[in-house]
Amino acid sequence: MGRRDSVRGIRAHAHHGVYAFERERGQLFLVDAVLELDTSAAAAGDDLARTVNYAELAQKLQHVLAGEPVNLLETLAQRLADLCLADELVDAVEITVHKPEAELGVPFEDVAVSIRRARA
To answer: N or C: which end of the chain has fewer CB within 10 A?
Structure first.
């Protein structure tokens, strides 16, 4: 039986963006990850080794989020999805990257890109 597990609101100050001022001063980014995986074996044995360790996942996602700058949120989202799918227990993942401090020239609450990727 499948399940959707999520880790939301992982934060990092990073330097992603197309504009020089974004690369220079950086800004806040957040990531949400929703994983699809079969947790029946973990539940049956009450065994963390048979499911995703969310503390470890959160640390890895934050490392990528704060890591090498990219121009596009789409590129960053793909890197984060690839990281999740590297765990063989994960069947699919939905990643949302938030850039709440983007400069749009109008009042706004959030800018976000969401992607869903599944194991081939």
So the answer is: C
